[in-house]
């Protein structure tokens, strides 16, 4: 069994992420980042700009701890899931959720890597 066991704080954060995705009309077993990563690359052209904007916000938020392409890497790790785009209302809810979460999280993660440099993605082992 080579699977890594997720730490309790990470498990709670993933559960909150999946809850936010479900509330925003997505698959309750997928994360917001994976959903956004999928649709930023696969959505039909009229809506792809929306998903790419969300992708930029989320990727910027997690850059200090995950490096570039957080959303695409999340999708690749979760690619066996079914992704639901959702209605206009649910996409609006998702946008609000991403903005409200990302602004404080971005500041917190940047401060965290200053205090705990080993958390920076360049210092993590593969």
Write the layout of secondary structure elements.
Layout: H1 8-23, H2 32-42, H3 45-66, H4 70-77, H5 88-115
Helix pairs in contact: 2-3, 2-4, 3-5
How would you concisely characterize the structure shown here?
The protein has one domain (8-123).
Gross geometry: globular
Largest sheet properties: none
**Structural class per helix/strand content?**
mainly alpha
- Work out the radius of gyration: 15 Å
Kindly report the average pLDDT value: 90
The fraction of residues assigned to DSSP E strands is: under 5%
Helix content: 55-70%
Note the gap between the termini: 18 Å
Name the poorly predicted regions: none
**Order of SSEs, N→C?**
HHHHH
Number of helices: 5
Number of strands: 0
Please indicate the count of domains. 1
Can you describe what's shown?
This protein is mostly helical and 126 residues long. The chain has one domain. The chain is built from five helices and no strands. It has helices at residues 8-23, 32-42, 45-66, 70-77, 88-115. Helix 2 (32-42) crosses helix 3 and helix 2 packs across helix 4. The relative contact order is 0.16.
């Amino acid at each position: 069994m080579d699977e890594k066991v997720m730490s309790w704080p990470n498990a709670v954060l993933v559960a909150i992420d999946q809850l936010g995705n479900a509330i925003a009309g997505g698959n309750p077993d997928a994360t917001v980042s994976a959903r956004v990563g999928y649709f930023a690359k696969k959505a039909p052209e009229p809506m792809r700009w929306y998903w790419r904007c969300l992708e930029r916000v989320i990727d910027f938020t997690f850059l200090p701890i995950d490096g570039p392409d957080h959303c695409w890497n999340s999708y690749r790790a979760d690619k066996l899931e079914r992704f639901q785009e959702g209605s206009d209302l649910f996409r609006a809810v998702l946008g609000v959720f991403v903005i409200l979460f990302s602004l404080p999280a971005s500041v917190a993660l940047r401060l965290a890597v200053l205090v705990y440099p080993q958390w920076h993605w360049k210092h993590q082992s593969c």
